[in-house]
UniProtKB/TrEMBL annotation:
Residues 20-77 form the XdhC- CoxI domain. Gene3D superfamilies: NAD(P)-binding Rossmann-like Domain. The lineage of its organism: Bacteria, Pseudomonadati, Pseudomonadota, Gammaproteobacteria, Oceanospirillales. Residues 118-265 form the XdhC Rossmann domain. Residues 273-284 have a biased composition (Basic and acidic residues). GO terms for molecular function: oxidoreductase activity, acting on the CH-OH group of donors, NAD or NADP as acceptor. It comes from Halomonas campaniensis. This is Xanthine dehydrogenase accessory factor. It comes from the Bacteria.
Length: 294
């Protein structure tokens, strides 16, 4: 029996749930008040991303201006979204170029998405445990392996996780976003070395860890130095990773090493504190509502 395909557009609440689960930047626009003739009623919502719109506030120039305002917030001053709220007032006869004659206030809430990207190279035992343990954390995880068909079926259901077949280590590294945290633990030492070379050459990786023994790192360090990488860059590499579990006499099971590795990462991924903001200032709210009063 052939299943029917649902071609209906995604609703705002379905899009909001998906984007929140995937840790992607988005904005929620809510009509909070309306006076006079307006396209929609208070409570109408739409979700906006850099390249998509889900649901509607009524269409027309007014809606395009809401989308434009939301995308400007998503772009931010430095190309990255900053979370927070803003209240926009629209006169549906002047600012919006419409003839309704009403007034609308729209609350735009920006969700910047996951602040941390973790790139894991290797889908072996430790890599698999790392991905499982990272699931509750608000990180985006890019899981790479050069071998086809190695990712488990359950990975398709884990939020904020992208599985990437990566036969070319250099291309995989080049595709990473700036500021990613990288862990190298593939099945092959030559591949590990190629990945380390490419990651160090980028110069914008937030942190870099390599699985293996101290003797492995001594060998890699010598070759990477010969390849032109300076002492300052090499000193930032953590090897072995998971030392709290894999040290002398410690638990060297994949789960324990993965757990210790994530514990090492947590202080490195802590985001800078932002000023406490619990909404719009009362004076700002009063000014906006006063401007919108017919």
């Amino acid at each position: 029996m052939t299943r029917a395909v649902d071609h209906r557009p995604e609703s705002w609440h379905a899009a909001l749930d998906r984007l929140q689960r995937d840790g992607l930047p988005h904005a929620l626009a809510t009509q909070v008040t309306g006076a006079g003739s307006t396209p929609r009623e208070p409570g109408a919502r739409m979700v906006i991303t850099a390249d998509g719109v889900f649901d509607t506030l009524g269409g027309g120039t007014f809606e395009y201006q809401v989308i434009e305002a939301a995308r400007a917030r998503l772009a931010g001053k430095d190309g990255s979204a900053e979370g927070g709220m803003s209240l926009e007032a629209f006169s549906l006869g002047g600012r919006s170029g419409q003839c309704c004659g009403g007034f609308v206030n729209v609350l735009i809430e920006v969700f910047p998405g996951s602040a941390t990207t973790l790139a894991i190279f290797g889908a072996g035992h430790v890599g698999t445990e790392l991905v499982r343990l990272a699931a509750p954390l608000p990180w985006r995880v890019h899981w790479h392996d050069s071998r086809p068909g190695v990712f488990p079926d359950w990975a398709a259901e884990q939020p904020r996780l992208e599985c990437r077949h990566a036969p070319d280590p250099t291309a995989a590294v080049a595709a990473l976003p700036a500021g990613a945290h990288a862990l190298v633990l593939t099945h092959d030492h030559a591949e590990d070395r190629a990945l380390m070379d490419a990651l160090l050459a980028r110069g914008d990786v937030a942190s870099l860890g390599l699985i293996g023994s101290k003797s492995k790192w001594a060998s890699f360090r010598s070759r990477l130095r010969d390849a032109g990488h300076g002492e300052a860059a090499l000193a930032r590499v953590r090897c072995p990773i998971g030392m709290a579990a894999g040290g002398t006499g410690g638990d060297k099971t994949p789960y324990a090493i993965a757990l210790a590795t994530l514990a090492e990462l947590l202080p490195l991924t802590a985001s800078a504190e932002r000023p406490d903001q619990r909404g719009l200032e009362p004076a700002e709210l009063r000014a906006i509502f006063n401007r919108s009063t017919p």
